[in-house]
Specification:
heterodimer; A: mainly alpha; Triger factor/SurA peptide-binding fold; 2 domains; three-stranded antiparallel sheet; 6 helices; B: alpha+beta; Ubiquitin-like (UB roll); 8 domains; 16-stranded antiparallel sheet; 20% helix
Amino acid sequence: MKTANYKLKIMILLSLFTLHFSLFTCEANAELIDRVVAFVNDRAITLSELKETYERTRKLQPDITMQEVLNTMVNRLLLLNDARRLKIEAKTDDEILNEYEELKVRALVRVREEDIESYYKKNEKEFGGAPYESVRDKIETLLTEEQTNELLKKQIAELRSKAYVKILLNAPPGNGGTGRP
Amino acid sequence: MELTNRQTFFLAFALLLFMAVPAIASQPIEKIDVEGLASISKEELLGLLDLKVGEVLDPLKVREGIKRAFFKGIFNDIEVYANAARTDVRIVVLERDRIRSVEVSGNNFFSSREIRKMFEFKEDDILRYDLLDGAVKRLKEKLAERGFPYAIVTATVKNTSKTYFKDIALTVEEGLPLLIKQILVHGAPEAEVRHIVHVSDGDRYDQKAVQSDMDRISEHYKSLGYLNPVVSYRFADGRLDIDVNMGKKLRMNFDGNTVFSSKELLKEMPFRDAGAVRDDLVEDATRKIVSLYYAKGYSSAQAAPVMSEADDTITLSFFIFEGEQVKVGELKFPGMTLPEKNLKAVLPLKEGDYYDPSLLSSDVDMVREFYVALGYLSVVVETPGVEIEKEKATITIPVKEGPKTVIGKVEVSGAVSVPREEILKAARLKEGSPYNEVDIADARQRVIDLYYEKGFIDVAINAEVKFSGESADITFSIREGERTFFGKTIVTGNVETKTVVIERELLHKESGPFNYNVLAKERQRLYRLGLFTEVRIEPLDPYDHKRDILIEVTEGNAGSVEFGIGYNNYDKVNGTVDIGYKNLFGMNRQISLRVGYNSLEKLYAINYVDPWFLARHLSFKGTLYRNEREEKNIDTKVIMYRYRKYGISLGVEKQLTDAMKGSLYYDYAVSNTFEVQPDIVLTDRDAGRLGISSISPGVTYDTRDNPFEPRKGVLAGFTVKLSSSAILSQTNFAKAVFNGSVYQEIWGPFVGAAALRFGVAQGWGHDTILPLVERFFLGGRNSVRGYAQDTLGPRGANGNPTGGNAFVETNLELRTFLGKGIGVVTFLDSGNVWQRISDIDGTIKHAVGIGLRYDTPVGPFRLDYGYKLKKEPGLSRGELFFSIGQAF
């Protein structure tokens, strides 16, 4: 029994040594440091960037998937590329996007008085009988945001149709999701 | 000692930890393997990824590197792996497929070339699989537009032997064409329209051809005076309906014009281009007519438009009152204490010129600016007065100068990284100089440039001015901001050209201070290579105080075929053909074949140029040539000698400064001289076969503003040619030639040009006189005009010029540019040739002359007549020359 126990211990030690060498020296178990998970024309999004953004976003939206985060990153790149084309400059990407949104999207938003009135009439119950004047500005803000989002979506769809966009997140390594036949 | 289980595991983990720590801790990279790379070198990829053996692998740098390398536009994926110790790195790249060729088959009507032109996918482009179906669809649409609506098009991608290169097999079956069975014309006489159009009944319904016909109809009616004819067409069931709406016709009359013809005035009218007659256009036309008269000094000219409309015709008449032509008599500036000369030189209105009243307000503004520039900040320029008497206008511009402000103290605040002295030196503002805002703005810009040069691209500089009495103290208040450096450089778009060809032209270095001006210079240098039709240089987003530079180039056609034709009255018609390629091996090496023919010479030459020989900024030039030539005594028409020469010339040239170039050449030439007139034989080397091996060092200095038509600058050169039996030459000599030309604008259309050339040579050993093919000759279209080609200097017994070992030549020209590309030149040429250096005496022959010049794209066409100042027996009094290009 003693010998068996001793043998077991020796085996454990040996297997741990083997594990050590296989983990830290064996080429076959090479670790992926980084790779491309998507690109928009010549701008790449790497796996490490995606993981970082995913972790950050998950703290705010726990249900979000990695695919959704990547999609948002691609859209952001599309808009940033267009902003660069228009020579919009700012210190941070967020500032560039804000300025781009002001110029290319918000400048086109038009909320007409009759739209506000029509929205009020349709949803009068929800306002609990509050007079039109007291909720008018709130409705205008709401409709402005709706139109802004709609225009932004259209803008992204248009930019996407013109750009070379590839999502390689689920492509096996070494294939690059080329879409080759 | 017995180990318990717990102790065993503890020991094992402790041991593992001990062994793992050095493994996980960052160790330098020992090996980097790259897989799947084809388009660029491993070194370029590793440079972009910023990965190096001996450095520690940093995942953040890997991320930046992948993103950077992606800008090359050639990758689909880059994966970076490492072993646990991170000593062995493996990079797997997958490049984007490119199109090697587009093969067209099945086409009957259109040529394969036409179909390739219509197809959006081109050779060498990235193969966008996602766009292929769309491209096929659009090709079908184009074929339908050209009359083949039933065309069947398929595209298949085929593998090739070259990695990442694919062929596209395009099958195009055009099918039956759609035919025009009948053409009907509406709104215009059918016979007239049918006469203009090219399509006819039975033709294929080619919308491109039909649209060209519509444009033709529209142009026809415009030429008949219709302002805006509208032509359209419809096609259905084989019937082509052409609808023409001719619109209104414009008739224009000018009355009272004598200075300008009606044709000249009509050219200035905007109505035909606008396709309409509107009130605003009539006003523009009226103003234009008046301004034409003003510019010629008709200061009281007036034009009145009258418009009438009847049926389909608009009649527009301009009644013109021209008045008298007036010149500027005198410009007066009452109240001015400064010298008037400098002010008058900058004013648009000049004494003696035509008086154009529209320039008067510019004059007033200019007087104000002149004073402000000199520090008179509160100057008052009053309303000018104009008195016209006897066709002369006296213009009075009263001035109240006010006090003069000068620059007081100049100080700097907020500068940390750049010494105060350096900033003040860059600003170039002197205490006591006149103060004006323009100078201060310029000085501020110079300080900004100084900061930019050092990488402070966010620098903010404010020039604060404090006035005290009549002086202004200036403080440059500086917020330096962060310093930015150059990061990596990414070159993309070069398919044929090697990246190193672009990189070696770059002036910036990685980690050097970032500077936009350097990028602008680099752009110019890349354009100058002649390889690219477009060069875009873009600094990428900043990171870690660095900015990577993206250089995108579009390659042009590197091959060229050039034809040249010229004429001069010695060689007669000259013809040359050059076939060249300027991107051999993608290294900007140039090779060309030149064939030149004229009545006296046949030349075949292969030229090779490597602008970066041995990877240095040193130009290597090699020429292999065969030349057959006969030299003729132009006076007697006798052939003096003929020669056939084979040779090779190899050498290097180095740009020493912007203007100075050094060169060193080795030449070996075997010449066979025959049919030599006996009286010009001075040595036994003058006839027969002679091998000359020589070395020629030289230097040239060139500051001319335009090599074809210099107006200022200097061109000078000094070359020595050494030939010796020590380098396997059959003859020994040394010869030195100097040439220098100076060009200077004298005044207005006059340019002065002066040239001095001289050469001396001495042989040794067997001969002291140079062999015939190496001797100096003077006279001719680019030498001493007045003497025919090569006829100056010593002559043989039969009167044939022998040439000699020494010469001197000077040329003086006054070039007058008359406008419209025409010029007149007067010249004095002098010079002589002596058989030996010891023969040199003061005997110089002179010729004066006059010439005409007419600008052409290859230099001015030249007609010169030179007149010998002293007529010599048996020689003409003068000579006439035709050629292209200035004499010197």
